[in-house]
Amino acid sequence: MRNPVFALSALALTLAVSTAGAQSLSSAQALYTQGKWQDAANAAAALKTSAGYALAAEATTNGAGLVADGQKKALFSKAQDYAKQAIAADKNNADAYFELARAQGRLAQFSGILQSLGMAKDMKKNLDTAVKLNPNLASAYVALGLWHANLDAKGAIARSSTGASRAQIVPNFEKAIALEPGKAVHRIEYANALLLQGNKAGARAQLEKAVGMSGSTFWEKRDVATAQAMLAKLK
Fold first, then answer.
1. pLDDT tens digits, 2-61
2. Backbone angles phi, psi at 185, to 5 degrees
3. How far apart are CA 164 and CA 152, in angstroms?
């Protein structure tokens, strides 16, 4: 017969470890929201959990936007590796697939046209998986909208080889905004997509909405500042 005292002790230990893990992830998230992306990535990856690796990927990809151009590719590659580790740890982690797709999209900017088109197909597959696992993942719809917009802008060859469609741009952005109407970054990316189509008036309208939003984290405040800078250039 199993010793009930031992069983209760084991349960208590399991709960303690689980709580500690959650607190550690929360601590890493707190570092990230403050803009301390390197510390956040290191702390999150050290947890060796799917959620930790996904957060490390997010922090690294966004952190790449703050460094010199010569350092960006290495960081995007690292973010991609983190996202793959997150998927290996949990194949049902929607955030992990989104982060992998996002890192791939950034890496495609450093690749030749043929290689980037191949990466685009893989990126789309990962985004589709992300929304299948979590239909309310707004960022994934933003990425899908950008995916269609960027490939549509590259011309007929890109469209025919990837299945990209201009008709899919607006629906994906509208879905994302319906899910998270207060996120300035969604409006900024929508504006970027509209600019690719030559729609300056539409882009301006999205940016005007973005600049009216408030940000509580380092990244949200940075998004509002980005929207202000973009809008100033369009006026």
1. 455 445 455 444 444 444 455 699 999 999 999 999 999 999 999 999 999 999 999 999
2. -60, -35
3. 6
CA 37/CA 55 separation, integer angstroms: 10
DSSP conformational letter for 112: -
pLDDT tens-digit readout, 173-199: 999 999 999 999 999 999 999 999 999
CA distances from 102 to 8, 17, 46, 57 (A): 44, 31, 22, 9
CA distance 71 to 63: 11
Nearest to 86 by CA among 129, 40, 143, 48: 48
Q: Residue 116: what pLDDT?
A: 77
Give residues with Cβ within 8 angstroms of 95, minimum separation 6. Answer: 51, 54, 58, 86, 130, 134, 137
CA 136/CA 196 separation, integer angstroms: 26
The Cα–Cα gap between 83 and 21 comes to 19
pLDDT in tens, 137-166: 999 999 999 999 999 999 999 999 999 999
Neighbours of 56 (CB within 10 A): 29
For 74-101, the pLDDT digits (tens) are 999 999 999 999 999 999 999 999 999 9
Locate the DSSP E strands across the chain: none
Torsions phi, psi for 216 (to 5 deg): -105, -25
